[in-house]
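Quick entry, no commentary yet.
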Amino acid sequence: MSVDPSQFRALLSRFASSVTVVSARDESGADRGMTVSAFSSVSLEPPLVLMCVDRSATLHELLLRTDMVGVSVLARAQEWVSRHFATRERHEWEGVPQRRGACGVPLVDGAIAHLECRVVARHPAGDHTIVVAQVERGDVAEGDPLLYFRGEYAGLRR
């Protein structure tokens, strides 16, 4: 017996997650990004993270080809950035403050953490691909995270 997709979505909506923008440069040198909430740490030694990317996402094919990705963990005030990169048609950086990481990937300015990662594995998983990446560089900043809970954006209550 298995849960149906709508029940599964309802079940997982109770899991609060951080909101990230995963970014890469395409073959023409253009910066691309997409909002990803299915992001997690995997290992401390070596430092590994994973992101789950829907196979129908427009950046899916790029993430299958690229060696380097950036991950920006969004701050509470950056809901608009998440919405910008969450639409299927909008993966360009026009109007989004950014900086270039040491590894060449674009990173969202003002994020509370930046990770620059080398892709080490890709695994098909249902209608998604799990992309595993080793963190090569990173930095943190002060601020509260942007969260996603029950289908809505949220923040911490302190």
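second:
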Amino acid sequence: METVTLKMERRQVALLKELARARGCSQAALIRELVDRHLQAKARSSLHDRARDLCGSVAGPRDLSTRPLKGYGRD
């Protein structure tokens, strides 16, 4: 393993210590876990993939640009 040095605000250090104590692990292990989780989230799926369960839940044409606009812009 390599050593990395970083500067953190006091409130961040306090939260880190509190969370590490609550989980029963070292601060370094917690930081490694959080970095891994963050980097894996960068490879996450697209918005369409995340909202796939909503597709087709609304009635109407698949492409709203084909909808006829009768009386559009008129009183």
